[in-house]
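TICKET: design request
STATUS: open
ATTACHED STRUCTURE:
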C-alpha cells in the first residue's frame, strides 16, 4: 500500500510554468507505475501522463513527468500553461502503464492548478 500527497499547485498566468510534486509513503514506491490525471469542474477525470513516456495529446510537448525513487517522489513539470489546463491534478499509483483511471489503485487528494487568461 502507498499513500500519495500532491503539492505545488497554484495560480499562474497563461504561458507560465508550475511543477507539481507527489510524495509517496511506504517502501514500495519504486515498484509502482505512476500517473497523473486531472479533473476540471463538471468534467470527468482525464489522463495526463503515465510513466515518463506516455502523455495525452493535449499536454504532449509541454508537460514532463519524472520520478525520483530515492525521494519517493513523482513530479509533473508543466510549461506553456493554458487556461484549459485549469483543473485539480491527481497522482495515482498502479501496476500497469495505463491511461484509464480505473487501472490505478491509489490516489492522492489532488492539488488545484488555475491558469488565468
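STATUS: resolved
RESOLUTION: sequence designed for all positions
ATTACHED SEQUENCE:
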Amino acid at each position: 500500500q502507498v499513500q500519495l500527497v500532491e503539492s505545488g499547485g497554484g495560480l499562474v498566468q497563461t504561458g507560465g510554468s508550475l511543477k507539481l510534486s507527489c510524495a509517496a509513503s511506504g517502501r514500495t514506491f519504486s515498484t509502482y507505475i505512476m500517473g497523473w490525471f486531472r479533473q476540471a469542474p463538471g468534467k470527468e477525470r482525464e489522463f495526463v501522463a503515465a510513466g515518463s513516456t506516455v502523455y495525452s495529446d493535449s499536454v504532449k510537448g509541454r508537460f514532463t513527468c519524472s520520478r525520483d525513487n530515492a525521494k519517493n517522489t513523482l513530479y509533473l513539470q508543466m510549461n506553456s500553461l493554458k487556461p484549459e489546463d485549469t483543473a485539480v491534478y491527481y497522482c495515482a499509483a498502479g501496476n500497469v502503464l495505463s491511461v484509464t483511471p480505473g487501472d490505478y489503485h491509489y490516489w492522492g487528494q489532488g492539488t488545484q492548478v488555475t491558469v488565468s487568461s
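CLOSING REMARK: The chain has a mean pLDDT of 96. The two ends are 40 Å apart (CA to CA).
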